[in-house]
Design goal:
Low-confidence stretches: none
Strand content: 25-35%
Order of helices and strands: EEHHEHEHEHEHEEEEHEHHHEE
Radius of gyration: 18 Å
Structural class: alpha/beta
Number of helices: 10
Bound molecules: acetyl coenzyme *A
Largest sheet: 5 strands, mixed
Length: 319
């Protein structure tokens, strides 16, 4: 059996930092409210002119270096993003050209905060069926470009960044199972107020969210996907080594960890410093914990995410 194994990880955060105290000067909010309700203290923002592809490039270069792969080795590029540089070409094509990866397939996946799990699933299927042997999978976002900076209910949440993994074909496990879902009937609870074919009234689209309702559905849905993932693999609660969750809200993360039977010491949390970086948050968290030595080879990880669509998904893998 052919598995997809993570051969290397990388990530990148833009230099500029926006703190909760900075936000206090922009909207009617407080550091205390934001920390208590979300767990976020700071987030990184792309500079003017700095794009999603710029962030993706830095993360991808680090992942390639960590995996010791050359450009010629990579035969698939998938970028998960909700904030592509352009309508087209895809950010994956822009990135492929930057990294001089030849003419391998390259495309974007759009599943908002679940985008990286979707991209990982697709790359895994390519590798398992022999369509690729070495995939670059990236989650990269400049969410700050679609945030309404006058809306205190959303502008406190989001940040920019990118994370990447190199997936290689291997005889040893790897990605063990992936579980993807979507339910478009919830589209109105977490959306943008327009786009390309349905443009917003005044310029750029902005995020609109019924936070409280999203929160309730997210907690229940992520609980269900934990059960689904454990059951599919015949695993008991508490039997995975690490939870690497999407970083939307510390309260959602705590609820999912409880459901998984894991203490918070076994959960990778980056939300305090990074906020919600949508499709970038899982590979950013993964790279952080790989580089600081917490996640080691042979350990079992559960990745999970929930986002606009609604979309949600998980991946169980041996690192
Ligand atoms: N500062 C101070 N007060 C605020 C702020 C703020 N930034 N934002 C809202 N409030 C107020 C509200 O107006 C409300 O006041 P009221 O009681 O007088 O009406 C009160 O705080 C409570 O508001 P809620 O929305 O009920 O607050 P809640 O505890 O639900 O926290 C939050 C809001 C943090 C947004 C939470 O609901 C959440 O995290 N939701 C889920 C987000 C998520 O997971 N999204 C999915 C991924 S994102 C993606 O896919 C793009």
């Amino acid at each position: 059996m052919t598995y997809s194994r993570i051969a290397g990880t990388g990530s990148h955060l833009p230099e500029k930092v926006l703190t909760n105290h900075d936000l206090e000067r922009m909207v009617d909010t407080s550091d205390q409210w934001i920390v208590e309700r979300t767990g976020i203290r700071r987030r990184h923002l792309a500079a003017a002119g700095q794009t999603t592809c710029d962030l993706a490039e830095q993360a991808a270069r680090r992942a390639m270096e960590a995996a010791a792969v050359r450009p010629a080795d990579i035969d698939l590029v998938i970028v998960a993003t909700t904030t592509p540089d352009r309508v087209f070409p895809s950010t994956a094509c822009l990135l492929q050209a930057r990294l001089e990866l030849g003419d391998c397939p390259a495309f974007d996946v759009q599943a908002v905060c679940t985008g990286f799990v979707y991209a990982l699933d697709v790359a895994n299927r390519f590798i398992q069926t022999g369509g690729a042997r070495c995939a670059l999978v990236v989650g990269a976002e400049t969410m700050s470009r679609i945030v309404d900076w006058s809306d205190r209910s959303t502008c406190i949440l989001f940040g920019d960044g990118a994370g990447a993994v190199i997936l290689r074909a291997s005889d040893e496990p790897g990605i063990v199972s992936t579980h993807l879902h979507a339910d478009g009937r919830y589209q109105h609870l977490l959306t943008t107020d327009g786009g390309v074919s349905d443009p917003p009234p005044g310029g750029n689209p902005h995020i609109r969210m019924s936070g409280n309702e999203v929160f309730r559905v997210a907690v229940n849905t992520l609980g269900a996907i934990v059960d689904e993932t454990l059951a599919a693999n015949g695993l008991e609660q508490g039997s995975v080594d690490w939870l690497v969750p999407h970083q939307a809200n510390i309260r959602i993360i705590r609820a999912t960890a409880r459901k998984l039977g894991l203490p918070m010491e076994r959960v990778i949390v980056t939300i305090e410093e990074q906020g919600n970086t949508s499709a970038a948050s899982i590979p950013l968290a993964l790279d952080t914990a790989v580089r600081d030595g917490r996640i080691r080879r042979g350990e079992t990880l559960l990745l999970e995410a929930f986002g606009g669509g609604f979309t949600w998904g998980s991946a169980l893998l041996v690192y």
